[in-house]
Hints:
D-Maltodextrin-Binding Protein, domain 2
Amino acid sequence: MMNLKRLGVLFCALILVFAIVGCSNGEKSSGEGGKSEDGVVTLKFHHWYNDEAGNWDKVIAEFEKTHPKIKVESVPLVENLNHDEYLKKLDLLASSGEQLDVLMFSNHADFAKRVSAGLVAPLDSFIEKEGLNVEEEYNSPPSKIDGSYYGLPAKLVTNLVLLNKDHLDAAGLPVPTDWTWDDYQEYAKKLTKGEGASKQYGSYFHTWSDFYLVLKLLGKEDKTHIINEDGTSNMDDPLVEDSLKLRYTMEQEDGSSVPMAETLSQKLDYRQQFFSQSASMVPVGSWMVTEWGEFTPEFTMAWAPYPKNNKSDKPHTIMQGDVINIAENSEHKAEAYEFIRWFTTEGLMIQQKSIPAWKNADVEQVVNDLVASTRKPDAVDKESLIYTLENAIPAKRGIPKGFITEVYDAYNAEAELYLLGEQDLDTTISNAKKKVEEIVDANKE
């Protein structure tokens, strides 16, 4: 769901490969590939959700009822829901000239890279023909790239805080409805108890550098990355340093959040930490409403808004999610557009697996349906979840530059040294600023 992964040296080569594939297929919007004698078109939909996670049989059957001339073949490239492995397989398929029609990406960075590589087709002609206002139709749609839309938002993931309500009740703490990072820190102290292997921590921060190393940046109205949308450095924002200070204080001084050293050495996971009740609070995305992995909670799960930096701030948070697209080499772009428009509206409501970005979705009804679909519906405090979702304000989050992964890797290397106690904060920030600026300079257009 939220970390930016490296494509490595393959990316540059893929640009050339995708360009060759694109040229060989041209600009056709319809053709004979995937079309039967009776005029029925079959679309291949590549993604990383297995049948259980995607409920594809039901979704596709409902689509085909109202679109008898379009068949959809669900093609999950992995069975373990791993988006990174999916990307590797997708890139190989694209380079081999495999039929691709509908694609999906879990984050805007990986999506933007495939746009740059020529794998994804622009949607402008279809949007204009329909008369669609993307901003009015969807919450937090992906920004235009070079003036064009290349994808529509599917599920909407909202950053919030997942809470063990039983732990809060035992500590005499209410479920927060409006709080700051200072409040979060105080909650964590009061929720922490015990020592050694059985210690209950008040908080857990995972390893994703674009989330857990910039916690305070993510609560701003805009400029929520360590580089700006125009590719310049944003490392001078004091909230970058403050984010690291917060973690160091909680992990090394207060002892109220799981130390990074334990997370790395023991390969800890946020689901394991939360569902085992080793940690009481985890800032995470709203995918955790249903995506519990192998766990079943033995306590009540509650939800709180993403913490604000100051009491007077508005409750901004990151709201993004899956982006669904049309492949550049698809011979059935018009039919593919019909499917992605349907899927991002009615389809997600039928799927009942996630919160849609579609503004016409009834949040309360969606939550009721999602919770009812879980293994233990009575474990979810729906009241706090609905309140949190309905009151969140989306931060402005543009499409990041293609080198953003390299930037976060450089920042992560320095931040880890600080959080592991191997380097002071001033040196960390100085080194990180220098490395980020070097990457920015090397990628100036």
